[in-house]
Batch of 2 targets.
Target 1
Amino acid sequence: MGRFAGSGEGPRKARGARSLRGRQSFLRPDIEPLWQAWCDGSALPNPGKIGIGVVLVAPDGTRKENSSLTGAHGCNNEAELHALCAALELAAAAGVCRLRLHSDSDVALRYARVPAATRIERLSLLALRAGELLRPFVDVELVWIPRHRNAEADRLSRLALGLPAVVALKAGRRRR
């Protein structure tokens, strides 16, 4: 959450964004710039090999990308949690203090916020790892986005599995 969140002045919080910490951070944006990341995981078949895709964008617009196989086998939710952890690791390695992390997996974001939300051991271990990776950051927002707005990370996760990119259609109303 930014310095101005909830005060009625300055930048507004992104729709659907939730601060992980649940408190205001009193950072000056000119001192602690906000980085943004997008992550996505794919399992082929489901369950199967796990590919991840991460896009990290610095405040000046420079990008870092990660498209890789994890070497693990698992379901789509495990793949999403692996991708979330990889995004946090990439951001930490870049020295990021403030991060807005986007994912199209509500499950992965929920488990990262509250690792005890799952009783499935494989997911619980990944959720605990995500929680540990969140600690070094001064401020983190975990933001759910629709799949069609996560196309770059999806392309990278599919690339890791050797799959072609899929054009995600924007959700809309159907004609009758």
Target 2
Amino acid sequence: MRDKKISVSVVVVTYNASSYIIPCLKSVLGSRGVAIEEVLVVDNNSSDNTLELVKKYFGSDPRVKIVRLRRNMGFPYACNVGVRLARGRYVVLMNPDVVVDPYCFARLAEFLSQNSDVAVVQPKLLKPGGYIDGVGGVMDFLGHGFHLGMYERDSGQYGEPRDILYASFACAMVRRDVYLRLGGMDPRFFLYNEDLDFCWRAWLAGYRVVYVPGAVAYHVGQHSTRRIPYRALYFGRRNRLYTIFTNYPLPAAVVASLMLMALYLVLGVKAALSDPYEARLTFRILARFFRDLKYLAGRRAATPRRASLTGMLRRGLVTFRLVGLRLHLAGLYRAQLRIKVKPGRAKE
């Protein structure tokens, strides 16, 4: 590590996170090898005692600052607020159900400082028990994101840095200037696919997104949607459609969007026989897409195009294999809706 510590800001987005926030902030404030400039707890109007706990246990630390939003604006909006307020050159975006290794941020910051073409870095995310939660992600042609290594036991098999299409913003470090220049995450996404969409735009702007194996964090996982799986289903499917329409080159965007809408139509008809609420959500996604078409077209026009789809395919960041479709046909997304663990699940 360098003698002079790199200054880092941390943005922790909370919503009814009282069960997690204390160990999360203790681990952040115990970071070594970097100077924690500030920890911005951006709260989405929690109804539990999350903020009371922050004040009780960390109120005497001037680095810990609370930003309370008037209502639940979603993860992307809250992150955007935090990054705008942050003073550090590098900013960590993280969930409250993550605990970081003492040198996690130092190794991420060191990698960014040595690689000017990298905009986002992700640590190795582990689950309790030594299983991998993710080492970054790639995507199939229809926009289904996949956390690499998910549910594998960690035995050092992901020991080298590698380019990834997207970093999981459960815990990731970004260059503040690049984040703001790209407009941050799309606040309409609310949750799910916002990290994939942003990182894809970073690639299109000419930057890289990289997994850094020496940095480690531990993720309890999916705190915000554990008890509301239909919300996860709605935003996951809708945001996937929005992402591929706005980020692919136009011919691929049209083909992929039509294929995905056809899949959703089939899923909606099928769900009408067994789960009418899921069916209504699916048809609502299709209707919403056409209502938002003008907005999405504007996003397309504002998205830089310095990286080609061919180059991303060559790097292995995108695959034409329709892995997500096979999981749909196998019924594994139905299992996910029931909160069952299935190896190799797509990012819903």
